[in-house]
Amino acid sequence: NKSEQFSLRWNNFHTNLTSGFHALLQGEDLVDVTLAAGGQFVQAHKIVLSVCSPYFKDLFKVNPCKHPIVILKDVGHKELVAILDFMYQGEVNVRQEDLATFLKTAEMLQIKGLTGDDDSAATNTPSSVPNKSERTPLSRQPVPVTSVLEPLVVQSEETPIRPYKRMRTEVPAPPPPSLPPSKPPSSSHSVPSPCTVNEDTSGIDFVEIAKPKEEPVEYESDIEEQLVKVAVSHTKKLRKLAKSP
């Protein structure tokens, strides 16, 4: 009969699907969302989180990023890993002392199978969105961040430090090197003082030459020394003229 149909069934479908998703989670393959909790990061799949939690489903619909980073406030890393194992495998082992914190976190994230709203959620249509009263308060909502493919670049606006400039201290210039004292002239080469010449109608009577106190003289240059020699020579000539009749 042409209308006859055959039913093909995969007996291990659910087991294979569950183990396949969990293998992708463990190997971090094809992940498209990063969850941050307790200072650590865990990568997962948006489709699995959306199926297991209406909270994540609404979050991903409002923020259609390619790979968002969801920061979960007041959620520990240990509780987050346990909740992910429950969503991917349908079961998880939790210690008794951690059970209260685990259930509180699961209720806050609206994880199906761990909250009391499973029956009401099953009756809703797939396109329905929970009322505002059923949503988690804003203080506990995760904050979506930009795509992880765009790294955050922090630029320092600190004013560059100017190089240290040493103050210039005024140091007096060193005195010029002193010339070695020249040999003091002899008594005959002493510097003459201004002389007085008395002229009369009969000619030159006399020339008075006062000898000053002889002191060693330091000459600053050779020119001054030559001038002194010229003056001494001129004085000798005047003496000769005075002695001649």
Key traits:
4-stranded mixed sheet; single chain; 35% helix; two-stranded antiparallel ribbon; 245 residues; alpha+beta; rod-shaped; Potassium Channel Kv1.1, Chain A
What's the layout of helices and strands?
Layout: H1 13-27, E1 33-37, E2 40-44, H2 46-52, H3 54-62, E3 69-71, H4 77-89, H5 96-108, H6 118-123, E4 143-145, E5 196-200, E6 203-208, H7 222-243
Parallel strand pairs: 1-3
Antiparallel strand pairs: 1-2, 3-4, 5-6
Helix pairs in contact: 2-3, 4-5
CA distance, first residue to last residue = 179 Å
Chain-averaged pLDDT: 72
Report the count of strand segments. 6
Label the overall shape. rod-shaped
Q: If helices are DSSP runs of H or I spanning 4 or more residues, what is the number of helices?
A: 7
Largest sheet, in brief, is: 4 strands, mixed
> What topology, given as strand order, has the largest sheet?
2-1-3-4
The third-level CATH topology of the largest domain is: Potassium Channel Kv1.1, Chain A
Tell me about this structure.
This protein is of the alpha+beta class. It has two domains: 13-145, Potassium Channel Kv1.1, Chain A (2-Layer Sandwich); 187-243, no CATH class. 35% of the residues lie in helices and 11% in strands. The protein is built from seven helices and six strands. Helix 2 (46-52) crosses helix 3. The chain starts with 12 loop residues before the first helix and ends with a helix. The model is unreliable at 119-166 and 185-207 (pLDDT under 50).
